[in-house]
Amino acid sequence: MSIIWFLLLGALAGWLAANLMQGRGFGFLGNMAVGVVGAVLGGFLFRMVGVHGGGMMGSLVTAVVGAIVLLFLVGLIKRN
């Protein structure tokens, strides 16, 4: 059951990040992938600076921040 929550959280994080980045989304499955990868990236980045959030809201914030960073990096790569 936790994998379903992880994927739903990833989908929500990807959707939020795409909306915050002015429509840089990739559809439902693409946003889910961005959110899941963003969750991993956000967790890594937050650990590097010594920040950790607990619970569902902390996980969502971590995933959204990671997804925003990921979308920003993808945007930089696409421009070149």
Automatic annotation (TrEMBL):
Transmembrane regions: 28-46, 58-77
Keyword Transmembrane helix: yes
Membrane topology note: Multi-pass membrane protein
Alphabetical UniProt keywords: Cell membrane, Membrane, Transmembrane, Transmembrane helix
Cross-referenced Pfam families: Transgly_assoc
Keyword Chaperone: no
Protein family per UniProt: Belongs to the UPF0410 family.
Domain of life: Bacteria
Principal location listed in the UniProt entry: membrane
Species in which this protein is naturally found: Nitratidesulfovibrio liaohensis
Upper lineage: Bacteria, Pseudomonadati, Thermodesulfobacteriota, Desulfovibrionia, Desulfovibrionales
Name the record gives this protein: GlsB/YeaQ/YmgE family stress response membrane protein
Locations listed in the record: Cell membrane
